[in-house]
Design goal:
Blueprint lengths: L1 E8 L7 H8 L4 E8 L4 H9 L5 E5 L5 H8 L5 E5 L16 E3 L4 H7 L12 E5 L2 E3 L23 E3 L2 E2 L17 E2 L2 H13 L4 E4 L8 H14 L5 E6 L6 H7 L7 E8 L3 H6 L6 H14 L3 E8 L6 H12 L5 E6 L7 H4 L7 E2 L6 E3 L5 H19 L4 H7 L3 H15 L7 H12 L3 H11 L13 H14 L5 H7 E5 L3 E7 L2 E7 L4
Parallel strand pairs: 1-2, 1-3, 3-4, 4-5, 8-11, 11-12, 12-13, 13-14, 14-15
Antiparallel strand pairs: 5-6, 6-7, 9-10, 16-17, 18-19, 19-20
Helix pairs in contact: 1-4, 5-6, 6-7, 12-14, 15-16
The structure holds cobalamin and iron/sulfur cluster (SF4).
The site of cobalamin (B12) has 35 residues, from strand 1, helix 1, strand 3 and helix 4.
Length: 518
């Protein structure tokens, strides 16, 4: 019997680890095939329908569930499903597919194809017989072999798991349902990482919910990476910041700059909010750990917030945002609460007045936020992404903001009243900020020029040719970094508050500010 497992990824760079692990851990004749959500339904349907597999298993996640719903009825093969999106409230699918593997898939899948005539013996298998739904949950185990080398592509993100499960219980998160933390065999993981590095993989992301939970394992993995990494590699971990042990920090601080990236969930700085979602967080300790990491400056930091949690009205969320923003972290991700199937918070939707849409189940309203409030936070998110996380205008913004949330909101509302976030050129972002500020013109132009590696389009008035040449000649006489020919060829001179000379010589870019005499 031939079985095909199908992953439909959110983007090409994200491979599906689940189908690889199921294949690796199965003795049956299993192949895998991946698409992305951008692929047309016809392409996926035709591939499946024209294939010669006996069974098709689809891997269902929040990013592909709507697509899969749309194609299921058009498939002419025996099908089954698995994945977090169909592990809870899955009865609606059981008229269209033969069965659904709930929860962890490796063992159940293998047993299923040993026991197709005895479905009741398969742990975690949902199916419908004589109009009755059978829906047992699987007991997680980790007696499986880790592998992500199947069909490996060095240009994708390499997902690695060293553990499964999370001891915490945050009520909005699926990991809260799997409190038992289980660890993979470390030697196997190391061999896998080494093979991937040696074959050109660059970006690695660990899927462990709290990588730093097991101090010994974390240090062992960190040291292994420091020893074996190659230039250009990057390793990302999800960390629970308030329990980050100093021994892990000491180990990681022996690494070269930016080899490691930590993703730290802050979600909210309000104790009342964290309590309401069963999130144990000592925000003070967490902030001091983040400050320590920032001071050393070796680990690249990314922090997450969730807008829409209980008790966070617009005002309180503004505080969470500003508290976090003021940590000065390079990347702040502002996410919106999603009421995931299976989570406690989804069951409490009425209690908190949550209204939400179909997948990805993002909230549109709550007791604490009106639809307009949520729209305002989306506006803040746009400015944050386009202006701050992009790195384009960090220096200018740092000079003009005292309340970052309010500034992002007010500027965002100005922007949206005149322009679109979806149809603009890069220069527009700079020009429009100046249009709003009516100040800091030189700062904005400097950031614009510094960002570019070749002469960009100018959105301000150019200096006269004669004046440009005079400035370059005077500059050349005082500074012999470049020949005069190179300056004429590669430099632009801009007359703002001062003269800005930006030299776009390949591999030798520089910017100079020359005071103007009034
Ligand atoms: C990688 C990842 C992504 C990647 C996408 C990956 C891809 N392939 O395209 C990115 C970063 C883009 C992403 C984005 C988002 N993600 Co995400 N993401 C993950 C992450 C970290 C890893 C998933 C994974 O591979 N795990 C390892 C595998 C082995 O475990 P598993 O997924 O549980 O699979 C097992 C079983 O489910 C089952 N199984 C899975 N498929 C199949 C198929 C068959 C046939 C069978 C039999 C069994 C089976 O067996 C597997 C092995 O035991 C998980 C968290 C985590 N650590 O798992 C979240 C997670 C999947 N994401 C989640 C969410 C909410 C999101 C976002 C909505 C977050 C947001 N921005 O708010 C976005 C949505 C993106 C979009 N475009 O809409 C939720 C998903 C809930 C759901 N119902 O799908 C998770 C679980 C995190 C959480 N909060 O709890 N995500
Ligand atoms: S949010 Fe993080 S700490 Fe909380 S349950 Fe999920 S994975 Fe665990």
């Amino acid at each position: 019997m031939k079985i095909l497992l199908v992953g439909i990824n959110s983007k090409f760079i994200h491979p599906n680890v689940a189908i690889r692990l199921i294949q690796k851990n199965s003795k049956h004749d299993v192949e895998i095939k991946e698409f992305t959500i951008k692929d047309s339904d016809e392409k996926i349907i035709n591939f499946i329908n024209e294939s010669s597999y006996d069974y098709i298993g689809l891997s269902v996640y929040i990013w592909n569930v709507n697509k899969i719903k749309g194609i299921l009825s058009k498939l002419n093969k025996r099908t089954f499903l698995g994945g977090p999106e169909v592990s809870f409230d899955n009865e609606e699918y059981l008229d269209q597919v033969e069965f659904i593997v709930r929860g962890e898939g490796e063992k159940s899948f293998d047993l299923l194809f040993d026991s197709l005539n005895q479905l009741e013996t398969v742990p975690g298998l949902s199916y419908k017989r004589d109009n009755t739904y059978h829906n047992p949950m699987v007991e997680p185990s980790l007696d499986i072999e880790f592998a992500n080398d199947i069909d490996f592509n060095p240009h994708q993100i390499q997902y690695i798991e060293t553990s499964r499960g999370c001891p915490y219980k945050c009520s909005y998160c699926l990991a809260s349902l799997e409190e038992k933390v289980r660890y993979f065999e470390l030697d196997q993981i190391k061999t896998n990482i080494k093979m991937l590095i040696d074959n050109g993989a660059k970006t690695f992301k660990f899927l462990d919910r709290t990588f730093n939970l097991n101090i010994k394992n974390s240090i062992e993995v960190i040291n292994f990476i420091i020893e074996h990494h190659k230039p250009g590699n990057s390793f990302q971990f999800e960390i629970t910041g308030d329990i980050l042990d100093d021994r892990i920090l000491d180990a990681i601080h022996k690494a070269p700059k930016d080899l490691f990236r930590f993703e730290i969930g802050i979600q909210s700085t309000s104790d009342e909010t964290n309590l309401a979602v069963d999130r144990k967080q000592d925000t003070e300790t967490l902030f001091s750990v983040i400050q320590k990491i920032q001071e050393v400056g070796i680990v690249d930091l990314h922090v997450d917030l969730i807008a829409g949690l209980p008790y966070e009205d617009l005002n309180r969320f503004q505080k969470t945002f500003n508290d976090t923003f003021n940590l000065g972290v390079k990347e702040l991700q502002l996410g919106f609460l999603k009421l995931l199937k299976g989570t406690k918070l989804r069951l409490q939707a009425n209690k908190w007045g949550y209204k939400y849409n179909d997948a990805p189940y993002e909230i549109t309203e709550s007791k604490f936020l009106s639809t307009e409030d949520i729209q305002k936070i989306h506006t803040v998110e746009q400015v944050l992404e386009k202006y701050w996380n992009s790195g384009y205008l960090v220096s200018t913004l740092s000079k003009v903001m005292d309340n970052p949330f309010r500034f992002f909101l007010e500027y965002g509302e100005f922007y949206e009243s005149k322009y679109s976030w979806f149809d603009y050129q890069l220069s527009d972002l700079f020009e429009r900020l100046y249009e709003y500020l009516q100040s800091n013109r030189q700062d904005i132009i400097l950031e614009y020029l510094n960002y570019h590696k070749i002469k960009p389009k100018r959105w301000w008035k150019a200096i006269q040719r004669q004046e440009r040449n005079d400035v370059l000649r005077t500059f050349f006489e005082a500074n012999k970094d470049y020949t005069l020919d190179d300056l004429y060829k590669y430099a632009t001179v801009e007359k703002i508050d001062d003269y800005i000379i930006r030299v776009f010589k390949p591999n030798n870019l520089n910017t100079y500010i020359i005071k103007r005499e009034n």
